[in-house]
Design goal:
With 569 residues, this protein is mainly alpha-helical. Helices cover 69% and strands 6% of the residues. It has a domain of 92 residues: D-Maltodextrin-Binding Protein, domain 2, CATH 3.40.190. The strands form two sheets. Strands 4-3-5-7-6 form a five-stranded mixed sheet. Strands 1-2 form a two-stranded antiparallel sheet.
């Protein structure tokens, strides 16, 4: 009897274990199959948002043209140590971003996609950093929300499609701060996270210079000061790390100094002029930053503004102890760039990972609050007003981005509609099914961003390149001097703001050469084929110098225009 009793008691744990297994299987059966691959699906959405139509438009942005020009100089003339832009050495920026662009174009061909790919990969890495930080500080769902927030932010995606050193700086500084969080939990020097932190910081200095030290040091020093953990700063062995960073950050200036000391002196003067606050903009940059912040964080502007002022009210949150580091990262660097930066909007990019994490936490808390309450008629009225405000603000963002004398009213309306559709769909489902509203909002937002990148941006960039060429004419040609032309686009004289005089080729081109020779000197605007014909006919009467070029491509469907300066012999 006792043996049977013992057998019965041994059978009970097995029965309980089988019941628990069946219960877990039933719970799994109730979970949708796609939830097991949530991270993979989020990654696919982020990749689609960053890489779709990456090479669809021309190189039109100012910073993009600078990197393209220096990369072309490295590829064509071999100026690896000191690339030149418009015949002048570009001393202010390290050339390593140009090296990456040249290597990518040699592998994928000399085209827009090959040129932009390394910088788009850096943008995807920024999304990964935000996902990893949110996952480490909170949980996997918060990490996925942070990644989707960045994937559905138009400004950030537009920056991923426009190569700049700021993308590389943001990725490596964000990676360094992520590895510092990993090391903070371990607290052991010479560990893998310790080496990864200093190597990432060194690479950030390699691409942007010592500015990376400031961006990384501000949140770490503030965190150690607030938490009273100065002993962690000693255990980081900063003296060894500083030696490593100096070896990377100052490698290029040392090479410049060994090659030509004058270049190093000029570089120091340029850095001082671009970083040290000047009297003319000091005190205004705060206002400019605050005005640009809603556009920078759109369509999550409400949470973005809350994230910016989180130190003032965030201590009431239960998750403040975990959010504190990201808040110090955002606020500290915001104040630094507001004091020093002359171009506010371009210097907000290094704060993107912290903004994504804070917005994800606030958004998740907001959705939970809505789910836990019953919405009455007043709630639906608030939802309608919120939808209307989002739609109107979407149109405002579209017009501010695309209607500044560059795009037509139709394209501005198209962009406004693309930005308003996600806001309208998301707000319609917000108070009934918040989780579904967020998913629909993100999916429609990503689709609209892809639409803007593929079908609206190419013609806008073509118009923008013509405007840039016209502004170059304004800069080169004196105001009281007319420009002679034989063939040009209708909108170019409007943007150039100059007097244009047409020279007809009929009855024969020699009449054009004689007309130019009678004016002693001046400027004329022609296409490439007509310039070659006039140069061959007038080589005995005129000397020609091409001062500006507007290159053609399949994307902008434009005729290659040349601004030529002529002088009679």
């Amino acid at each position: 009897m006792l043996g049977k009793r013992h057998a019965f008691f041994r059978f009970l744990p097995r029965c309980a274990k089988s019941q628990a297994l069946r219960g877990s299987q039933k719970e799994r059966a109730g979970i949708p199959f796609w939830s097991h691959y949530a991270d993979l699906l989020v990654g696919i959405v982020c990749i689609a948002s960053v890489f779709c139509f990456l090479g669809s438009r021309d190189i039109a942005d100012v910073r993009e043209r600078r990197i393209a020009g220096t990369a072309a100089d490295v590829a064509d003339h071999g100026h690896w140590l000191l690339p030149q832009l418009e015949g002048k050495p570009r001393i202010l920026k390290p050339p390593f971003a140009d090296w990456i662009a040249v290597g990518s174009m040699r592998l994928l061909g000399r085209n827009e996609f090959g040129f932009r790919l390394p910088f788009a990969l850096a943008g995807l890495g920024i999304i990964f950093v935000a996902w990893a930080i949110a996952r480490r500080l909170f949980d996997g769902e918060t990490g996925r929300i942070a990644a989707l927030i960045l994937a559905a932010t138009p400004y950030f995606i537009s920056q991923c499609h426009s190569p700049s050193q700021d993308l590389l700086l943001t990725f490596f500084t964000g990676l360094a701060l992520l590895l510092w969080l990993v090391w903070k939990k371990e607290g052991r020097p010479w560990s893998a996270s310790w080496w990864g932190f200093y190597v990432s910081l060194s690479l950030a200095c390699l691409f942007k210079g010592p500015l990376a030290l400031v961006i990384v040091s501000i949140p770490i020093v503030l965190e150690l000061w607030v938490s009273h953990q100065w002993h962690l700063g000693v255990r980081m062995r900063p003296w060894w790390g500083v030696l490593m960073v100096i070896g990377f950050a100052f490698a290029w200036p040392i090479m410049l100094w060994l090659w030509n000391k004058d270049f190093l002196v000029q570089m120091i003067a340029d850095v001082k002029r671009s970083v040290v606050p000047s009297q003319e903009h000091h005190g205004w940059s705060y206002f400019q930053h605050l005005c640009n912040w809603p556009w920078f964080t759109y369509p999550w502007s409400v949470f973005g503004i809350g994230a910016l002022f989180l130190p003032a009210w965030g201590r009431k949150l239960q998750s403040w102890s975990r959010l504190r580091f990201c808040s110090l990262w955002l606020t500290g660097n915001f104040v630094f760039f507001a004091v020093c930066a002359k171009q506010p909007i371009h210097h907000l990019l290094p704060m993107v990972p912290s903004v994504g994490v804070i917005e994800a936490v606030l958004l998740r808390q907001f959705l939970k609050t809505i789910e836990s309450r019953n919405i009455d008629r007043f709630g639906w009225v608030v939802a309608g007003l919120l939808s209307l405000c989002c739609v109107l603000f979407s149109f405002g963002v579209g017009f501010s981005m695309y209607s500044r004398g560059i795009a037509s009213l139709t394209r501005a309306l198209a962009v406004g509609c693309c930005l308003a559709i996600p806001a309208f769909i998301g707000s319609c489902f917000l108070f009934s099914r918040p989780q579904r509203a967020f998913k629909l909002f993100v999916l429609t937002g990503v689709l609209c961003i892809i639409t803007i990148s593929g079908w609206i941006e190419p013609p806008v960039s073509a118009r923008r390149s013509i405007v840039s060429f016209a502004h170059g004419i304004n800069r080169v040609v004196p105001g009281n001097e007319p420009i002679y032309f034989t063939h040009t686009k209708e909108d170019l004289p409007f943007y150039a703001r100059r007097e244009f005089r047409r020279l007809e080729l009929d009855p024969q081109p020699r009449a054009v050469v004689s007309a130019l020779a009678s004016r002693k000197q001046g400027y004329f605007l022609v296409s490439q084929d007509i310039y070659e014909m006039l140069a061959a006919l007038g080589k005995d009467q005129l000397m020609f110098e091409v001062v500006l070029r507007h290159e053609s491509s399949k994307k902008n469907n434009a005729i290659p225009l040349l601004l030529v300066h002529f002088v009679a012999r």
